[in-house]
Design a protein that fits this description.
about 550 residues, single chain, mainly beta
């Protein structure tokens, strides 16, 4: 014995998948180590109770992300789960490429994250007859099976007595023996003062004899090296000596949430701020905010004590925080607070027309003013004779014991077209419905109009026109030369007409001159009585300027 290292082996108990014969005695799933004693609390955390495909076995952590167990405890590509402390890990398993054609009963698994709080065992040392080894397992405790299965890890000593194929054989009077559930557990030995994994529990007679697949043989070393390279992982004792201690687990993120102000009226907004530590992202009421400091406006929708929640995430997990906002009813307005409504008639006028401004008061008003001019209450009027073109805004103010209220209205004044030169036929363009252009182009207003004529124009055929006014005060007439009514959809009360208007010029089309036209669309709605009423209009002016009239209103005569 003097020329050999003094070795002790530690074995992890695992539940076995299926049966493995040895001397006619199968070792089946799940049991505790025979002649073993419970390990001290907080020790041998590297030996874990593993579950895969509904069966339990023992496994050993041999790298930051690698476990090793028996091949009959796992299936290639399938998951296996185990716990370290309160954290559950999942490993994807790979059997030895020799198994099951040959009884090389070893499998390894890789986790997606590092296994925290565990120092991996080194794979190494040399199996030699006569040396002591220690077996570990979560399996049964009675010879022949039975007992145990209580989730307690046990350990016990035995001695290597020989070798069989890929296995080392151990037996000792009164020594440890593997039972159902110890499969996959480690057989460990001391190499000097360093515990090393010498074998993996495979089978036994459930009395006193054990078979452990060796880790020191070329078949196992080749399998472990290839697995580490394929999965880019470390296996301690094979690809690294793992002397660097594992980093401490990341610190859990925390957060503090505050609201300013924390007392508000219903309808008001508070600013909620979050201060984080060790966080990679944060959210307040589900809305992402910046880290380490973020904020968002929060507008409660109910009266009372409203709790606002914050959540942070980081490599160390998740953290939560909250704050409270007290919400009270919005104070009612002062009693009989005055208000007003201002209207202009007409809203569209020509220079020289009179616009009537009417102010109606509501609430307890004692005075009313339209653009600095006092008017009676509750209804006051002010007449304005237009002198210049443009759009004008008029303001109204009412006052009373409950405070002050304001209102406003706008009206538009167009330039009056100049009188026709001497000798011009006596006709006029009579506007019927008008509206402002909402597109913001140089077209300011468009009217539907008809031509009023006398006996000097007996052959005038085109009587419907568009009267288009530009922002510079100029205007032009576009005769409507055709109307086409579209077929209405069932239930649609609108009447849509496609208009073709004359652009007052001719264009060349091959060897011919043709009228230059523009397209427009007129929508009419059923009135309360007698025929459809023009409602909206869109198209292009003779100059090619686009316009959209969202609302047409009745209007008077434009021109002479």
């Amino acid at each position: 014995m003097g020329k050999y290292l003094t070795l002790r082996a530690a074995v992890v108990s695992l539940f076995l998948v299926g049966t493995s014969p040895v001397w006619g005695n199968p070792v089946g799933p799940g049991a505790h180590l025979i002649n073993g004693s419970p390990v001290a609390a907080g020790t041998h955390l590297e030996v874990v109770n593993m579950t895969s495909q509904g069966s339990s076995c023992t496994a050993t952590v041999i790298g930051p992300r690698v476990i090793i167990t028996a091949a009959h405890c796992a299936i290639t590509g399938q998951p296996a789960t185990f716990k370290v402390g309160t954290v559950t890990y999942t490993a994807t398993m790979t059997r030895s490429t020799l198994y099951p054609q040959k009884d090389h009963d070893i499998a390894v698994g890789v986790t997606s994250v590092d296994i925290q709080g565990v120092t991996p065992v080194l794979v190494g040392a040399k199996a030699t007859t006569g040396i002591d080894i220690t077996l570990f397992g979560y399996g049964c405790t009675n010879p022949g099976g039975g007992g145990g299965n209580d989730g307690i890890l046990r350990m016990g000593d035995t001695v290597i007595t020989g070798f069989s194929d890929y296995d080392m054989v151990s037996r000792k009077a009164g020594g440890a023996a593997v039972c159902f559930g110890d499969s996959g557990g480690p057989a460990m030995a001391l190499d000097g003062t360093t515990p090393k994994l010498l074998g993996v529990n495979s089978k036994g007679n459930i009395q006193d004899t054990n078979y452990d697949t060796r880790t020191d043989i070329p078949e196992t070393q080749t399998f472990l090296t290839s697995f580490a390279q394929t999965n880019n992982v470390v296996i301690c004792g094979v690809t690294s000596d793992c002397t660097t201690p594992p980093p401490p687990p990341p610190t859990a993120p925390t957060c503090v949430l505050t609201a300013s102000p924390s007392n508000i009226n219903l309808g008001d907004t508070s600013t909620v701020s979050i201060v984080t530590t060790n966080a990679t992202d944060a959210a307040i009421e589900g809305q992402s905010v910046s880290v380490p400091n973020g904020q968002m406006p929060f507008k409660p929708t109910a009266v009372g004590s409203v709790t606002v929640h914050g959540v942070v995430h980081g490599t160390g997990g998740t953290g939560n925080c909250q704050t409270t906002i007290t919400v009270q009813n919005t104070p009612p307005p002062p009693p009989n607070s005055p208000s007003c409504t201002l209207t202009a008639n007409p809203e569209f006028a020509n220079i020289g027309d009179v616009v009537t401004l009417e102010l109606d008061t509501q609430g307890n008003a004692t005075t009313a003013v339209i653009d600095g001019t006092s008017v009676p209450i509750p209804v006051g009027k002010k007449m304005v004779t237009t002198t210049v073109a443009g759009t004008f805004t008029v303001n109204g103010v009412v006052s009373g014991p409950g405070g002050t209220g304001t209102c406003a209205v706008s009206y538009t004044v167009d330039s009056t077209p100049p009188p026709p030169p001497p000798g011009t036929p006596n006709f006029a363009v009579v506007s019927t419905y008008c509206g402002p252009n909402t597109l913001g182009t140089t077209v300011s207003k468009v009217c539907l109009a008809v031509v009023k004529r006398d006996s000097t124009l007996p052959d005038l055929r085109l009587t419907d026109v568009l009267l288009i006014t530009y922002t510079d005060g100029s205007s032009e007439v576009a005769p409507i030369i055709s109307r086409k009514t579209e077929t209405a959809q069932p239930g649609d009360l609108r009447v849509v007409q496609d208009l073709t208007t004359y652009a007052n010029t001719q264009i060349s089309a091959g060897n011919y001159l043709v009228l230059d036209t523009r397209a427009a669309t007129l929508t009419l709605l059923p009135p309360l009585r007698d025929g459809a009423v023009p409602a909206s209009l869109q198209g292009r002016s003779p100059k090619g300027i686009y316009f959209t009239i969202d609302q047409l209103k009745p209007f008077g005569v434009s021109g002479n």
